[in-house]
Write a structure and sequence with these properties.
With 306 residues, the chain is mainly alpha-helical. It has helices at 4-21, 34-43, 49-62, 66-70, 74-81, 88-103, 112-116, 123-134, 143-152, 165-174, 179-195, 214-217, 236-250, 258-265, 275-288, and strands spanning 252-254, 292-294, 301-303. The chain is built from 15 helices and 3 strands. The model has no long low-confidence stretch (mean pLDDT 96). The structure holds a DNA duplex (11 and 11 nucleotides).
Length: 306
DNA sequence: AATTCGGGGTC
DNA sequence: GACCCAGAATT
């Protein structure tokens, strides 16, 4: 597949590039701790670094250990999550914190299988925390690493639509043998994908491995498929987001006023959901624990939980 | 394997 | 206006 001589060159060049060009992100600092790394990885699931930074900083100051977060009412956690998106992640992070406080003595577990058992922690996040927080040479494969491997090694513009076993095998083959170097390699390749080997306009002129890139060697062929973008306008996700924005802002809203107030807030754009969609979305938020319903007053209220 | 689940910056 | 972002859980 790949000879040791070639991979050693990649290790040296990409890790060297990372040392001088990698960003000084707070969760990369040695004193950050595993809790900070875990929080960052959950927040970074489908959310760009620049948007996570301020929220992560405030979060860590407010809840320095898992136990602190676990003791908080969900409403506060949801509010602190702000507009990072996918607010179920906030509840899963709190549930993970409760497990860590209860079963692990308030210490983030240091192996991938234990991490994988936490809510909101999947294959990637478990490997990333084990690697970046504890120095374990796990196979870390995120969207950046997949794209770098597709281009650098496979000569294609984009990776497959879904993560394949072959990609995991390739990532394993490419990793340095020495654990510390392997962990740095994972961070380096990820950073290369984030800063240089980007999805749209790759900066090949600044790439430390452009001369050995299979994609460039092949003449930078176009993607063999057209990425189907996620629909947004009119979807339940947009309507749920609009309702959550109201709840974060006001704490609680009369159920009957949700349509007009969401429209007035502008979070729905030009979309005007029908009553069936509103009801479906409210039911979904209740089921997810992101909202609670209060029928004790003169009119039913929807509020943040806890 | 395919869907669902936010939100905003960027081209 | 389409595309993309340190994915996970569910079906």
């Amino acid at each position: 597949m790949s000879t040791p001589v070639i991979t050693a060159t990649l290790h040296r060049r990409i890790n060297g590039w990372f040392e001088s060009e990698g960003r000084a992100l707070p969760w990369r600092e040695p004193e950050c701790g595993a809790w900070g790394v875990l929080v960052s990885e959950i927040m970074l699931q489908q959310t760009p670094v620049v948007r996570v930074l301020p929220v992560w900083t405030a979060w860590m100051e407010r809840w320095p250990t898992p136990r602190d977060l676990a003791a908080e009412p969900p409403a506060e956690v949801i509010r602190a999550w702000g507009r990072l998106g996918y607010p179920r992640r906030a509840l899963r992070l709190q549930a993970a914190a409760a497990q860590i406080a209860g079963r692990h003595g308030n210490m983030v577990p240091d192996t991938a299988p234990e991490l994988l058992a936490l809510p909101g922690v999947g294959t990637y996040t478990a490997a990333a925390v084990a690697c970046f927080a504890f120095g374990r040479p796990e196979v870390v494969v995120d969207t950046n690493i997949r794209r770098v491997h597709a281009r650098l090694v496979s000569g294609r513009a984009l990776p497959e639509k879904s993560l394949t076993a072959a990609e995991m095998d390739l990532a394993r083959d490419l990793m340095p043998g020495e654990p510390d170097e392997a962990c740095r390699w994972n961070a380096s390749v990820m950073e290369l994908g984030a800063l240089i080997c980007t999805a749209r306009s790759p900066r090949c002129g600044q790439c430390p491995v452009a001369e050995v890139c299979a994609w460039r060697e092949a003449g930078m062929p176009e993607p063999h498929y057209r990425p189907t973008g996620q629909a947004w306008a009119g979807t339940d996700r947009q309507v749920r987001g609009a309702i959550m924005a109201l709840l974060r802002d006001a704490g609680r809203v009369p159920l009957g006023e949700i349509p007009e107030r969401a429209a007035a807030a502008g979070t729905l754009g030009a979309h005007r959901p029908d009553s069936a969609q509103f009801e479906r979305c409210v039911a979904g938020l209740l089921a997810d624990g992101l909202a609670s319903r209060d029928d004790e007053g003169p009119e039913p209220l929807l509020s943040l939980p806890g």
